[in-house]
Amino acid sequence: MKPLLWLVLIAAVSANVFLSLVADGLAQTLLSIATGVVAIGTALGLWAVRSARSARSA
Q1: pLDDT by residue (tens digit) across 5-44?
Q2: Domain spans, the chain
Q3: pLDDT at position 50 over 80
Q4: CA dihedral 16, 19, 25, 31 (to 10 degrees)
Q5: Which residues touch 3 (CB under 8 Å, ≥6 apart)?
Q6: How far apart are CA 5 and CA 54, in angstroms?
Q7: What is the spatial distance between Cα 13 and Cα 5, in angstroms, rounded to a whole number?
């Protein structure tokens, strides 16, 4: 699960950078919002996985 979350996070950040260079106007805004939501979601997922493991070890 954790490697998949890292892969999705890297893909979302890469897509956001690519879109900022290629797209313009409303399309850029909407796609940047979408990739930002995905990046935040995967970052929260990684944090949840990390904190769940550290809670078990304590």
Answers
A1: 999 999 999 999 999 899 899 999 999 999 999 999 999 9
A2: 2-52
A3: yes
A4: -50
A5: none
A6: 18
A7: 12
What count of other Cβ atoms lies within 10 Å of the Cβ of residue 45? Answer: 17
Q: Which two tokens stand for residue 42?
A: 């995967």
Whether 39 contacts 11, CB under 8 Å: no
Structure tokens at 31: 């796609």
Question: Angle 27-28-34 (CA atoms, 0-180°, nearest 5)?
Answer: 90
Identity of residue 55: A
| CA quadruple 12, 13, 17, 18: dihedral sign | negative
Using a cut of 0.85, tell me whether the model's pTM lies above it: no
